[in-house]
Amino acid sequence: MLEIRSARKVFYKGQADEKTALNDLNLRLETGEFGVVIGSNGAGKSSMLNAISGALVLDTGKVLINGDDVTAMPVHKRAIRLARVFQDPMKGTAASMTVAENMLLADLRSNRRTLRRGLNPVRLASYKERLSLLGLGLENRLDTRVELLSGGQRQSLSLIMAVGGSPELLLLDEHTAALDPRTADIVMQATIRAVEALKLTTLMVTHNMQHAVDFGHRVIMLDAGRVRLEIAGREKAAITVPDLIGHFSVKTDRMFLAS
Ligand SMILES: Nc1ncnc2c1ncn2[C@@H]1O[C@H](COP(=O)(O)OP(=O)(O)OP(=O)(O)O)[C@@H](O)[C@H]1O
């Protein structure tokens, strides 16, 4: 379970270019829930993910993971409890190493074991099993160098590597944004397969409204550093892309009228 309580972050405080990134933001994500975060540019989505991961130090407010207050916990310690996949498919993997070697690296990172026993048959079998969750056939390409994989395969590999340590929380930071639409859909399907199989509590930021409609239990719309709208249950099941986009335009009209 993730809780963000009254998170506030102001950049360049007191200066002409002061920016309120998080404005008393509150959010609660239940264990096993998949939340999809949307919002216009500058709404505070990245700041929120950074505050959860510890990359951003809050001015005030709290972040709790499964009831533990991690607000003061440094990034490297929080990294054991959460996994994050970024936009760039080149970032999460080592290009010149094979799929199996990348899995081993991730394994060692999350388990703090030594490299000594290397790629033994037990490990290879478990990597095959985990990779098969993605449904992309990567389990048959353990000896392929990662640089030979497609962007979608590589991003999906990053995902399965990130969640190897059974994290309490998975953060997907626009992880399909750098991919062409078809590849983005393939990666989303692989993501859903892995998230469901591993029962991961997940928070995904996306600008892809179709993905926000199609996936996840709840849509969370951020605006000006706080949650402005949440859509779940039957309402979420019935929502369309134009409906979601409509929420953006209502907000823009209001902003326009207020200014
Ligand atoms: N390191 C920083 N220094 C100064 N201002 C920042 C910094 N990071 C974020 N901001 C400001 O905080 C606000 C929220 O930014 P943030 O990047 O969290 O929004 P976002 O919703 O992720 O936007 P996008 O969709 O464009 O990625 C913006 O006004 C942004 O300019």
UniProtKB/TrEMBL annotation:
Coiled coil region boundaries: none
Family: Belongs to the ABC transporter superfamily.
Residue ranges annotated for the ABC transporter domain, each copy included: 2-249
PROSITE patterns the record matches: ABC_TRANSPORTER_2
GO molecular function: ATP binding; ATP hydrolysis activity
Keywords: ATP-binding, Cell membrane, Membrane, Nucleotide-binding, Transport
Record InterPro entries: AAA+_ATPase (IPR003593), ABC_transporter-like_ATP-bd (IPR003439), ABC_transporter_ATP-bind (IPR050166), P-loop_NTPase (IPR027417)
Record carries keyword Iron: no
Source domain of life: Bacteria
Subcellular location: Cell membrane
Membrane topology field: Peripheral membrane protein
PANTHER family for this protein: NITRATE ABC TRANSPORTER ATP-BINDING PROTEIN, TAURINE IMPORT ATP-BINDING PROTEIN-RELATED
Protein name (database record): ATP-binding cassette domain-containing protein
GO CC terms, sorted: plasma membrane
Main location, first listed in the record: membrane
UniProt keyword Lipoprotein present: no
